[in-house]
Amino acid sequence: MAVNNKKNWFKIKGYPHIGIPPKYHERYKWIQPYITNPDKIARHAFLPFIHKTSKVRRFRKSYSKADGTLMVKSEDGKQKNRIRDDKRRELYYASHLDSLIFSYYAQKLGELYEQKIVKLKIPDVATAYRTITCTKKTQKGKNKCNIDFANDVFEFIHAYPKKEFVTITFDIKRFFDKLNHNKLKEKWLELLKTEEQNQNQQKFLKDDKLPPDHFNIYKNITRYAYVDIIDLFETFKNQIITQNKNKDGIHGPRKKKKVTKIRFLRNQGAVAFCSKKDFLKVKGKLVRNKRYIKKDGKTITRNFGIPQGSPISSVLANIYMLDFDKKINDFITSIGGLYSRYSDDMVVVAPLEHKRDIINLMSSSIEESHLQIQPEKTQIFHFKREQDKLKCGQEFKESINWNKNLIYLGFEFDGETVFLKSASLSGYYRKMKRYIYRSKFFAQHIRNKTRGTIFKRRIFKKFTYIGANRRRVWKFDKKSIQFKKTDRYDWGNFLSYAYKAANVMMNNKIKQQTRKHWNRVNTLIRN
Fold it and tell me: How many helices (H) and strands (E) does the chain have?
């Protein structure tokens, strides 16, 4: 597996946080020397993370746990209503300077991690959070993504020589929230000991201590403080720091402005919730700490969990799983199978007779790692060859349902053909319908000259093949009377992803799944 480590860590983003983003300062050349100086980082005072909850609405059909058949509502045979299941994800994002520090150390640790997995002979196991170069002609783009990783697994299954075998998928429960701090520190130390260090850092490593700069990072990623985004906004909503661009794209003066709702921050040109000085005045009322938890009526030090969303969390998660990945991969390869892990989603392909051994090994190894597998998400798929065709079915308590397809990383595989996951396609059409209905509502109620007009171009760009091409945005320059390239890109829409998958995936029917989208869009607009 070819790995590209040339990704630049120094990327200044513009999301609003505490304090002015460095890119809005005239002088920010001091930042890179500061971050690359271990003595500076050892004494650096980190600001609290900003916390927000991401909710994704999901609607799922109800299936029998006995045989996998679709549950019905009553004796009249009507299908039971889909169950709404909102997926909540707790996200934390660091201040701009803190984020750059995390990014720099993430790159350093990532390089050591890549060297380590080559020594352990597991370079192809962990696929998430790594920059892995495409090597096949069928792969589109410079680096692999989940489409390529899923396709690699499907191709392995399709070419597997056994007449009957199993594919088992596992999912780790609350992955980032459960990482044990002591184990994380232990693996962190192991990586640093493999690298040549200066004399000062060698002294700490000999005593099994992290060097001061690394320890400060470790301390602030394990016992972190945070501020809820709602509380922060409500406190400073009358004095949000904004800065807009003029017609020539030049930033104007910064000013404090009232913003009525969080969703208007971007539209109003918000660059920060408040200055660092203003935040420190009310810090005691807003900041919450993850250092302690209550257990059995007592307050104890929290020894697990790191924030999901920081630039270094993903690298630390992979480092944490080194022993687990090595142990599982050694066993699976010894029986002629495949093991792959994409963050907390794991898949194993192996001979049928080893099914119980694999499940037991996974369970015991996960417990050793102080983690937990979600039993309801452990799914066993049986594959068998009939008349030179591979057939897929899912195992349930009472029987194997041969009408069920393997689902992995957003795709379905029936043994011969790859499809988009039906839930992903349903979500796309649901968003399309909601967006068009909202467009109609505002068109009817808006009080200007455009009343009654639906902006079809915007709809087509968001939901049809017209907006599927990913391209750089060009802007007309009045002075030179010509179009000039900008730093912005149109990243396409859901169909961009679908068409890319259709070009990469083996034996797929993805374009057939999406071919009716144009008729649906126009029908919704007409009706």
Answer: 17, 23
Q: How long a stretch of residues is the chain?
A: 527
The tens digit of pLDDT for each residue in 140-187 reads 667 889 999 999 999 999 999 999 999 999 999 989 999 999 999 999
In whole angstroms, give the CA distance from residue 272 to residue 346: 39
- Tell me the pairing of strands 49-56 and 225-228: parallel
Residue 418, both tokens: 């790859």
How many CA atoms within 13 Å lie on the side-chain side of 240? Answer: 25
Query: Is the overall model pTM greater than 0.90, yes or no?
Result: no
Q: What sign has the CA pseudo-torsion 243, 244, 249, 252?
A: negative
Lowest-pLDDT choice from 37-41, 225-229, 455-459: 455-459
Q: Are 110 and 101 in contact (CB under 8 A)?
A: no
**Strand partners for 172:** 373
pLDDT value of residue 5:
45
What is the enclosing helix (H) or strand (E) of 497? helix 494-504
Residue 302 and residue 468: Cα distance in Å, rounded?
46
Residue 98's region, left for phi above 0, alpha for psi from -120 to 50, else beta, is alpha
Distance of CA 400 to the CA centre of its chain: 32
Integer Cα distance of 314 and 110 in angstroms: 10
Higher pLDDT, 247 or 96: 96
Q: Which residues contact 213 (CB under 8 A, 6 or more apart)?
A: 38, 39, 41, 42
Query: How far is C-alpha 381 from the chain's CA centre?
Result: 26
Using an 8 Å Cβ cutoff, are 378 and 171 in contact?
Answer: yes
- Using CA atoms, how far apart are residues 242 and 259, in angstroms rounded to an integer? 10
Q: How far apart are the C-alpha atoms of 242 and 273, rounded to whole Å?
A: 9
Residue 489's DSSP bridge partners are: 472
